[in-house]
Predict the structure.
Amino acid sequence: MTPLLLTSFCPWKAQQSANSSDQLLELMQRQNLLPAGVILLRRLPVHRQLAPMTVMMRMLEVQPAIVVCCGMAERRERLSLERIGKRGDRRLTTPLDLDALIIGTTMTEISTDAGDYVCNDIYYTLLNQVERDRWRACPLFVHVPLLTAANALALSADFQWVINRLWQIAAAQGTPQLYN
């Protein structure tokens, strides 16, 4: 079992040269800030059906203990760990203890609003799939604000902190132990 699968999106607006979720993963990879063995699935299509399907196919292939999907949040200033994925009136919650996970971070918050677009769609779909079919993987969605010269170092440090904590737990136990 692979401890960790990380995903990012490609840009979705014509005027965007990059997606901050992919920029963060690229920065982490380039600076060797990710644990050895983390699997990256970068530049997912911003598409309500293709994105979740692509991630689930990769999950079946590599059997991760934890899958962390990252998406861009232009209007946010902090990394946002999403607690809830929703569809209609149905809300699904990650089993990870996000309160414990962010201890020690400075630019990370917990959010209960994964949005109304592809980010929420992929998160809800993964949470639902894991619950329905009892997959061993544990999903988490992280929204990434626009990266700037002023915030990139702090955001990447927090992301590294969160990923390292998840990696240690998943690698040691085979499944995450930061459950609610």
